[in-house]
């Protein structure tokens, strides 16, 4: 309950937003640089671009509905894949020194590869479209999840594991009741790190696509529709904020026992 | 690039250019051969200019470089240039014409054995262009119209020209827009098939690209601009009359080999901007909704460019 209240209290901290907006508005009006339109212009333009639909569709128009769900779907698919894959491999190498020794060089190599540089390869493998984008996002964000999960799994207190053994817990039970809960804070830290990365990679992958928020951003750039460019940037910022809030809610709920212990 | 290596410029005599070192952003395409020729033949040097070329990926992508002053002159397709100007993003002046399309310069191509054999088959297909909302998308839109298709009926995707043939071969795009020399290479190595010549019929002799400066640059450097124009015109005349010169100039800023270069259909180099021709671009942009209202191109043509 406290977790929920804490998350709900967050919007109260939004008092800085109007101040930032005001400064932004005044600064851009003073600058008069075509590449920096004032937020009042951006908001009106965003409405024209995406929010002219009927209230029953949350005011989203056809353009928005043709782009937003795809982008979000890929983002979430990439996160789920990276989350499941990263946690599974991470916990496995965290608990097995042998596996760690075998896989560590490969993982260090893979982690150093920037996902955007691999885009041409993903494009050649999966062609333009959803699979390529999910592959790019997954590959780019799996590393922080994997490393944090491994770290978390390694740092389980031996006493806890010994106790579990004394009580005759099976391997599966030990994993679910002892290892995962104890690694959870670190796993969640990795997942949170991957959130903003996923958003960035979604945009980059969609530059090379035919729809999605990233594609809209690129098309606006090419049409010199700078309020449209900023509209897409603001939209991505809001999306990042909402995704983070949603994730925090999930994290708080999953880690309640952890909080209570503190 | 080697024409005027000496750093010690002569003392600026009256009448000399205000700015002696000019950076020009250009695509690695045959149409900018006169720039290389003017460097090699010393035409720029004779005008007191040192011109340094920088390769770019597209006119729209490089527009911020023009605005920030990283480059002084930009080789850009007219559609991106007019969009930038009409949207109020950059106040530009066209200081020279680069190229008008000749048959065979730009082709729409499909993969070998593709089921797409006529324009009408393009509905719902993905078309690869180097830049969205530029001359490629506009001219393909014009090509779609007689077949009863609108620009929204196809999907557009950006790929740099050098990657286009690969994108076509691996199925990332169903149709690729390929300029010379990339379409020769695609046909030779991958067996790519020509679906249509882009600039034929109503688009014959269509102006492709020009050289732009910002309005501020034009105001502050009228002598440098005029000097650039004189040298460019001389080089364009040479390019038009002597294709062997063009072929050898190409080797210096592109990776076109001699054999390919000799099969290319060059000849659209312009010595002057034709306002009526550029107006055709603006009118077509209006027709396809790139522009919201009629745009008079005379407002962006620099003095001396069209003479």
TrEMBL record, chain A:
Residue span(s) of domain ABC transmembrane type-1: 68-251
Main location: membrane
Membrane topology: Multi-pass membrane protein
Regions that span the bilayer: 76-94, 106-126, 187-208, 228-250
Subcellular location: Cell membrane
Similarity remark: Belongs to the binding-protein-dependent transport system permease family.
Protein name per the record: ABC-type nitrate/sulfonate/bicarbonate transport system permease component
Organism from which the protein derives: Nonomuraea rubra
């Amino acid at each position: 309950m406290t977790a929920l209240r804490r998350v709900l209290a967050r919007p109260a901290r939004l008092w800085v937003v109007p101040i930032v907006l005001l400064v932004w508005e005044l600064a851009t009006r003073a600058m008069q640089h075509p590449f920096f339109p004032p937020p009042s212009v951006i908001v009106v333009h965003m409405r024209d671009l995406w929010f002219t639909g009927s209230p029953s569709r949350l005011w989203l128009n056809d353009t928005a509905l043709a782009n937003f769900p795809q982008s979000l779907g890929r983002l979430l698919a990439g996160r789920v894949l990276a989350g499941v894959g990263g946690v599974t491999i991470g916990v496995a190498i965290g608990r097995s020194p042998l596996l760690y020794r075998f896989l560590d060089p490969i993982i260090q190599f893979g982690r150093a590869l920037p996902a955007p540089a691999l885009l041409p390869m993903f494009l050649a493998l999966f062609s333009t479209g959803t699979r390529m984008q999910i592959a790019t996002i997954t590959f780019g964000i799996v590393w922080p999840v994997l490393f944090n999960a491994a770290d978390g799994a390694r740092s389980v207190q031996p006493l806890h594991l010994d106790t579990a053994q004394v009580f005759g817990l099976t391997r599966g039970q030990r994993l679910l009741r002892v290892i995962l809960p104890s690694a959870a804070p670190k796993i969640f830290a990795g997942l949170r790190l991957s959130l903003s990365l996923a958003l960035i990679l979604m945009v980059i992958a969609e530059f090379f696509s035919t729809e999605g928020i990233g594609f809209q951003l690129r098309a606006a750039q090419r049409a010199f529709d700078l309020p449209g460019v900023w509209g897409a940037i603001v939209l991505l910022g809001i999306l990042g904020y909402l995704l983070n809030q949603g994730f925090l809610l999930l994290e708080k709920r999953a880690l309640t026992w952890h909080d209570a212990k503190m | 690039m080697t024409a005027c290596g000496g750093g010690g410029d002569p003392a600026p005599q009256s009448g000399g250019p205000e700015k002696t070192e000019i950076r020009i952003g250009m695509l690695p395409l045959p149409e900018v051969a006169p720039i290389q020729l003017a460097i090699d033949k010393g035409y720029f040097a004779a005008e007191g200019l040192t011109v340094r070329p920088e390769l770019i990926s597209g006119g729209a992508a490089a527009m911020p470089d023009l605005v920030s002053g990283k480059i002084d002159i930009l080789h850009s397709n007219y559609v991106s240039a007019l969009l930038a100007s009409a949207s109020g993003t950059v106040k530009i002046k066209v200081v020279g014409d680069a190229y008008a399309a000749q048959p065979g310069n730009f082709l729409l191509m499909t993969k070998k054995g593709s089921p797409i054999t006529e324009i009408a088959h393009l509905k719902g297909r993905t078309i690869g262009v180097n830049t969205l909302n530029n001359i490629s998308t506009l001219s393909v839109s014009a090509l779609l119209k007689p077949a009863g298709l609108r620009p929204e009926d196809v999907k557009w995707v950006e790929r740099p020209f050098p990657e286009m043939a690969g994108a076509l071969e691996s199925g990332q795009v169903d149709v690729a827009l390929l300029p010379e020399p990339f379409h020769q290479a695609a046909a030779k190595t991958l067996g790519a098939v020509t679906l249509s010549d882009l600039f034929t019929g109503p688009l014959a002799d269509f102006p492709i690209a020009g050289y732009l400066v910002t309005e501020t640059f034009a105001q502050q450097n009228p002598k440098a601009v005029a000097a650039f124009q004189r040298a460019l015109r001389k080089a364009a005349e040479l390019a038009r009359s002597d294709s062997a010169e063009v072929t050898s100039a190409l080797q210096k800023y592109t990776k076109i080999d001699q054999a390919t270069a000799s099969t290319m259909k060059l000849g659209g180099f312009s010595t002057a901007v034709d306002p009526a021709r550029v107006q055709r671009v603006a009118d077509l942009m209006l027709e396809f909704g790139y522009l919201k209202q009629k745009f008079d191109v005379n407002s962006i043509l620099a003095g001396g460019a069209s003479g």
